[in-house]
User: Fold this.
Amino acid sequence: MNFRVGSLRLRIAVIYALLFAAAFGAVIMVASGGIEAYAARVISRDMAANADVFEEILELRAREMRAQADVLSGDFGFRKAVALGDNLTIESALDSLKARAGVPEAFVVEASGAIIGDARALSAKERRGLFQALSNGESAGIVTVSDNPASAVAAPIQLPDLAGWLVLAEPLTKSALTSLSELSAIPLESRIVAANKLPQNITVTSDTSPIERSEDGERILYRASALPSLSGSMKPVLLLRHSLSEALSEYRPLIWLLALLGVIGVCATIVLGWLIARGITRPIAKLDAAAQRVADGHHAFVNVRSRDEVGRLATSFNTMIEAIHDRERKISHIALHDILTDLPNRKLFTEQLNSALARMTNGKRVAVCYLDLDNFKLINDTSGHPAGDAVLKEIARRLTSFMPGAVVSRQGGDEFAVMIADIEADEDMLGHAEQLFHCFDEPVMIGRQQVPINASIGISCSPDDGTEAETLIKNADLALYRAKQEGKAGYQFFEQAMDDAARRRRQLELDLRIALSEGQFELYFQPLYSLSEERLVGFESLLRWHHPQRGMVSPAEFIPLAEETGLIIPIGEWVIREACRQAAQWPERLRVAVNVSSIQFKSTNLQNAILQALAQSGLEPSLLEVEITESVFIADIDQTLDLLHKLRSLGVRISLDDFGTGYSSLSYLRSFPFDKIKIDRSFVTDLDQGTGASAIIRAITTLAGALGMETLAEGVEAEDQIESLRREGCQQVQGFWYSRPVPGGEVGRIVSRLGDPGARMQSVA
Assistant:
């Protein structure tokens, strides 16, 4: 038999055995308890019956002695001897009575309490107690003779008045009590003891049920019944003792027999349960083995012909396995293919690329082309995602059709990858690149509308650009990134410089994150001077980065990366907090201007960041000036205007930076009433070039004045520029002529210097 641990067959057999053992054990316990209860009832009944027999025997003996005593006490001669006090005659009659009645003790108790006869065995206390009992009318009971209990009877002596009592006493010795015990059906020990000398917890009761005690590990039954007393020293009790343990030991063989039958029954149940379990579990074992084969990746079929539940389970199992295999095939296909285009996905493409690289021989090359559709998001935004899906399907069809020998994959979104294997080493890759470009010659039809589609392509080749799939894909992606930077709708081959630039970019991004967490940023401030009021009106805050190894990093280098990675949001929030904190400590009510990136402006937390900065610093909202460029309007004009109005409602001033460089600045002026317009430095630089810059500046200041807006010119570096700007109506200026950007600690010096009229016109460039 297969007794594999944990098997269902073994568990069923064990459960059968345990159930039988539990049931038979309960039977044995009930039987044992029943036997014990029955034995206790029989013994209780026998003890009660024997107590009654003892009492009847004592009473019968007492009647016999009483009859003998009555004969003598009624004899005329005896009464005459008592009346005359003839003690010799009395004692002679008593000796004759003892011999005739067979009792060892006989004496006369006079009415005065005196005793005639041999009563030396009675103690003085016992005599007093006897006299008291006789005086109270008692005629039979137990007395103590020579410290032993004795059965005594008394017959009154009438002359005719009561002259005393004739008393007969027969000792109840241990041998006499043993003789009485032999009359019992069960082995009993009988004693007559005083009530105050009973064993602990044993009391005299009229109940026939004995009292059980444990003595030295043995169960003992006691029964105590009161006896009549003629004694002055004790209250006699008949105490019967019986060993229950010895009585129950006679039933022990029966219990052992029951236990033996139970063991035999358990063994038989195990065998029977095993046979039943084997019949039940054999088809289940087949199912288990089949499931194991399926788990190991093999196909399995269970041949179970029964029509019961197990047979139906096997049929369902076979159906389920077929369904699983079918689903696995579908899942495997889905896991390795793009759902929309049914092209290989990134995982399968990488596997196929690795396989092609492993097969590549000397003199051959493998090329990876990464494609990204230009402005695809615009199609989704304007025509909807179904239109975008249709475009992706069409591009997938064209790539597959135009590149029949290549592996085409959709990498995700609007990105595709093409692998071209077995390219000759001297073959020109430009032909393949041009062939890819032909896929986009014709526009894609979306409904009845023709949509022109262009793509940027990055190309890497093995072995020159890498011998591993991940390296080739990464380098093709870098080339694609360069193609996007070069103006889209073109292709670029990978160059090592691209990887170096990407590596530097990744390091710079890492350093940016460290700079933000370690506080490497610092704010510099450049004064904003009012020409119309001839005074300092504020400062523009400018972000500077002190790199621990590279020194000062140009904002033109790290700001675009911060915007691209999203780090500009936490950096910009820090700039707002720090600018407000320092401005709140300046000696005069000077404004502080903060540039806000279009990326930061789109974040939902900008308003809260400004509120928190103002609350924490205590700076008046009117002293904070937020500078934006027209790029913030490109994504969502309505949302941008809504946020600008909310900031204005806080009391914050809004400036439009780099005015005149965009193509729609005038429309923004009409949409929102800015507080200030900042004229781009390119117009200030061209003032002395005769290019019409003066006319443009004059137009801007006139327009701003009509709209109630201030104007500020950036990049002022010469005195003649100041005079020209003053003539053209520009109200404020900013540039090196007044001061280069300085750290926050030097703001006080700038305030003092620009407050001196003699120093206002001195260049510090």
Observations:
- Residues 357 and 653 are 61 Å apart (CA to CA).
- Residues 757-765 have pLDDT under 50 and may be disordered.
- The longest helix spans residues 8-73.
- The radius of gyration is 62 Å.
